[in-house]
Design brief:
Elements: H1 2-18, H2 20-24, H3 41-50, E1 53-55, H4 61-78, E2 84-85, E3 95-99, H5 105-109, H6 113-117, E4 124-131, E5 134-140, H7 144-159, E6 168-171, E7 177-181, H8 211-222, E8 227-229, H9 242-255, E9 261-265, H10 270-273, H11 285-301, E10 307-310, H12 327-338, E11 344-348, H13 360-368, E12 379-384, E13 408-413, H14 429-436, H15 449-453, E14 464-468, H16 483-495, H17 501-512, H18 517-538, H19 569-572, H20 598-603, H21 613-616, H22 631-655, H23 662-694, H24 709-713
Helix pairs in contact: 4-7, 11-12, 16-17, 17-18, 18-22, 22-23
């Protein structure tokens, strides 16, 4: 009996060690690069008939990365390998030809040579061609990085089961600099990060290079991101010292083959803090010289260093105004140092001061509009999508369209600082698209924010877009599986802002979960509705900035102590007469910062979109909304509709159980339950608070909050992530 028991234990141990992949396979680590086998035999055979061999000459590190990805993708999708050769002399029917005109004689001699030249530095073409009387598919670009992007796009087509017969596509990015901004600190904490610690293990660098760094590079390259700012905008000057520059250089070496440049945040007071100077005045020759020498030193470590991102004179950060100099003077000093190396400065326009007696929404415009045309040509002014701070909904920032002589760089937030952190399912592509396709009317109708950002409206030489990262050390990268969709959507829109939110959602679902249309249709619908649902249970009808103090977790519309522009009451201005911030001519007149007819549209209560109503107007509680309900009853309706819609999301997710792996389905289910509880919390806390001013009942058809307003006010949270 003892012998059999021993045998059974050994059998279980063997089983445990033999199948760890099956146990842990679907933890989300592979993101949208899963390359699962093609289940449709007919489609698999169709693909294989056109992919019998790969011709891919060239030995650059980027080509090696592209070949490795092709191998990984093909082997996963077909459960078998396809031989890769660099022999141009023998071409079979169904060969995939990959390269540039300089790396591949076949491409140089083909009819697509002229077409490739039109793709630019990073673009690519994928086309069916005939060479040596054989029909082949060709992935071609002018550069190695463009080829890499082409390979990822081709694999995306296979993953999403697109037809590749007689294919002919040309793709090139609309925006030149497409960056992630990591708000990561050197102690590995992440400001507004909800997915674990910082990716960058500074203590072990440069000697130990985590495999995760390479997978990070692969994921970003697959969606066309070509730069990463690896340190927090609330900067630490130590990262500019040799001790850290050698660590940054090690990261740059990993990212370089994937077309990704490294950028750093520059602390404006660095000449004083690490340079031993007595001043950081940008007009002092010794300061100018210090930065020039420091930049030269950085390029010795990192020859393709991208440049600096700077947060200055905002929220306590040092800057040129400390010396009575302008933002342009500060930016131009750094730009002068970077120019010989083709580096850029991204100077953030997120500036406001509690000491300035002006609507916070107006302050960035007031400071930067007069500086238009005063920046060097390697400076981009980085502007948040809205005039406050990444709220669930804001009108577009009035600076877009107001500085025609200056390249403006869009800054979106991917991490969900104000959208429920990494436990709420909120698909952000609709938010990004709403901002990008707002019409500034800067040069008449059709002057969209997207055209300001991509430089086409004013024909700027450089253009840029940034997304504040939601990536951390959590095994699934983003904390929430659906948080990955926001990283993915940001990258896809950075490459081509004309893509639709639905198209991107479907791509991501197919690659991340399954190509089963019975799964895709309901879950895509849920994703597309999720942002509006969240706005309803958090900040409906144009409300904003009602989260908890400091940590930004949960609702706290009652916050009224401390500096005014960090309180909630500053923004909603609820009183017995009504609610909302009057930004018309009778109030702060922030509407005047927009071009006509946008200014008039927002200012007129009859034409102001209801989604921005309380952003621009203070209205009485009995004001009649578009639905015919009073403003109070409409607020109640929106809050209850938002919270109840999370139940619909839960029901939708339950309906697809069994169509994907149990692990990820269970985790999303558990997070949706958290979201439901917190949506109810937002609804109850906000309505009970506003009811103290409206003095009107919650209509009988709605279940009343079970807790008191005092209960919600007394909630405390000491150890909130990301704070």
């Amino acid at each position: 009996m003892k012998r059999y028991r021993c045998f059974f234990v050994k059998f279980l141990l063997c089983l445990f060690f033999l199948i760890p992949y099956q146990i842990f396979a679907e933890d989300g680590y592979r993101l949208w690069l899963r390359y699962e086998p093609i289940e449709n035999a007919e489609l698999r055979n169709e693909y294989r008939s056109m992919l019998r061999e790969i011709n891919f000459p060239g030995e650059s590190p980027t080509f090696q990365a592209a070949r490795e990805e092709l191998n990984r993708g093909i082997e996963g999708l077909f459960n078998s390998k396809i031989s890769i050769t660099d022999n141009d002399s023998i071409i079979k029917e169904g060969t995939l030809i990959v390269g540039t005109p300089s790396s591949s004689d076949l491409i140089a001699a083909s009819t697509i040579h002229d077409e490739v030249s039109k793709a630019g530095k990073e673009g690519f073409i994928i086309e069916t061609i005939e060479t040596n009387e054989k029909q082949c598919i060709c992935i071609a670009s002018n550069t190695d990085t463009g080829v890499l992007y082409g390979v990822f796009h081709f694999l995306r087509m296979l993953q999403t089961r697109k037809h590749i017969k007689n294919i002919s596509i040309v793709r090139k990015p609309r925006i030149r600099y497409r960056l992630l901004n990591h708000w990561d600190n050197l102690d590995r904490t992440v400001e507004r990060g909800y997915a674990g610690s910082s990716l960058w293990d500074w203590h072990k660098l440069p000697d130990y290079i985590k495999p995760r760094y390479k997978d990070y590079a692969r994921a970003n390259a697959s969606i066309g991101i070509n730069g990463t700012v690896i340190t927090n905008v609330n900067a630490n000057a130590d990262v500019l010292t040799p001790q850290y520059l050698e660590k940054v250089a090690a990261l740059a070496d990993v990212l370089r083959p994937y077309g990704i440049k490294v950028y750093l945040t520059a602390r404006f007071s660095a000449p004083v803090e690490i340079g031993g100077l007595e001043t950081a005045d940008p007009l002092e020759p010794e300061v100018v010289s210090w930065w020039k020498n420091k930049v030269d030193e950085i390029y010795k470590y990192i020859p393709d260093f991208g440049g600096f991102l700077v947060k200055a004179n905002s929220e306590g950060q040092p800057g040129p105004q400390d010396y009575e100099r302008s933002h342009a003077a500060g930016a131009n000093m750094l730009a002068y140092a970077l120019a010989p190396h083709d580096g850029i400065v991204m100077w953030r326009a997120f500036v406001y001061s509690n000491e300035v007696p002006e609507d916070r929404a107006k302050q960035a415009y007031n400071e930067f509009k007069p500086l238009d045309g005063k920046f060097r040509d390697n400076v981009l002014v980085q502007v948040k999508n809205g005039p406050i701070d990444f709220q669930p909904r804001e009108p577009f920032h009035p600076l877009f369209g107001a500085m025609p002589k200056t390249p403006l760089m869009m800054e979106f937030q991917i991490t969900q600082e104000y959208l429920g952190f990494a436990t709420h399912l909120v698909y952000l592509a609709p938010l990004y698209k709403e901002a990008l396709y707002s019409d500034t009317y800067a040069k008449g109708k059709g002057s969209y924010v997207s055209e300001v950002v991509d430089g086409s409206l004013e024909d700027h030489r450089i253009s840029g877009i940034a997304g504040v990262s939601n990536i951390g050390t959590n095994r699934n990268w983003c904390g929430h599986t659906f948080g990955q969709a926001n990283w993915y959507a940001y990258g896809r829109l950075a490459w081509n802002h004309k893509l639709s939110s639905g198209e991107i959602a479907e791509e991501w679902l197919r690659m991340t979960f399954t190509n089963n249309i019975d799964f895709i249709n309901p879950v895509k619908k849920m994703m597309m509705a999720s942002r509006e649902i969240t706005v309803n249970y958090m900040t409906p009808i144009g409300l904003a900035h009602m989260m908890g103090r400091g940590h930004h977790y949960g609702p706290a519309p009652w916050v009224d102590e401390g500096r005014a522009d960090w309180t909630s009451v500053y923004y909603h201005r609820a009183d017995t007469g009504g609610i909302g911030f009057d930004r018309t001519v009778t109030g702060s007149n922030a509407v005047s910062q927009y071009h006509s007819p946008v200014a008039e549209k927002f200012a007129d209560i009859e034409t102001c979109p209801e989604k921005y109503l309380l952003w621009f107007h203070h209205l009485p509680w009995d004001y009649t909304t578009n639905s015919g309900r009073t403003l109070w009853n409409e607020l109640v309706h929106r809050y209850y509709q938002g919270a109840d819609s999370v139940k619909w999301m839960q029901k939708t997710w339950r309906s697809v159980k069994g169509m994907i792996d149990r692990e990820r389905h269970n985790k999303v289910s558990e997070f949706l339950e958290i979201q439901k509880q917190e949506a109810d919390w937002w609804r109850n806390a906000c309505l009970l608070y506003f009811q103290t001013y409206s003095r009107r009942p919650i209509p009988e058809k709605y279940d009343k909050p079970s807790k008191s307003l005092l209960h919600y006010k007394n909630l405390e949270f000491k150890y909130v992530p990301g704070h």
